[in-house]
Specification:
The structure is a single chain. By secondary structure, the chain is an all-alpha fold. Helices cover about 75% and strands about 0% of the residues. The longest helix has about 35 residues. It is elongated and about 65 Å long.
């Protein structure tokens, strides 16, 4: 296979995984942010609780989508390195979820360590952030594998170049 074509294929897989993860991460973090803000007990008078909650939901949703894209992309790089010899039917959900949790930890640590080092955030906040990202990463990975395997079951003749090779594998 042409080297440029192989690189473009892997890049497409990385971007595709990033976009696939960005959507649920944006929704989960957006809804969570909106709900948390809406339960602030002492809202200033004259401030719309709904307006502030919607603003928090949109802001957190956008941030969540960016983090989800980054984590999905990191996950795809981890898979390129760790699972390149395996084909889709032989991948295990638990192992996939472990790689997703690792990607969540790596991307969230990259985000949370600078504020902690500068004294702008505490270790507790960082630990919660990393824990949530690891959980979302594991769930996203398991869901990604389930979706990929269900597509394989529906169209085995056309899925992944007729040989069940993955976009990140060195084969195909």
């Amino acid at each position: 296979m042409n080297v440029l074509r192989m690189v473009l294929r892997k890049l497409r897989g990385m971007v595709g995984m990033g976009v696939t993860w960005a959507i649920p991460w944006g929704i989960v973090l957006g809804v969570t942010g909106g709900l948390l803000v809406s339960f602030i007990p002492d809202f200033p008078p004259g401030v719309s609780r709904i307006g502030i909650a919607l603003q928090a939901a949109l802001t957190n949703g956008l941030i969540g989508a960016v983090i989800g894209f980054a984590t999905g992309s990191v996950f795809s790089v981890v898979l390129m390195a760790a699972e390149r010899k395996r084909d889709l039917p032989n991948l295990k959900k638990g192992r996939f979820a472990l790689w997703g949790a690792l990607a969540g930890a790596v991307s969230s640590l990259a985000i949370v360590l600078p504020p902690i080092a500068q004294g702008q955030a505490g270790l507790g906040v960082g630990a919660v952030f990393v824990g949530v990202a690891m959980g979302l990463g594991a769930g996203s990975a398991a869901a990604s594998l389930a979706i990929a395997k269900s597509g394989l079951a529906l169209e085995p003749a056309t899925a992944f170049n007729d040989e069940h090779t993955l976009p990140w594998s060195s084969e195909g």
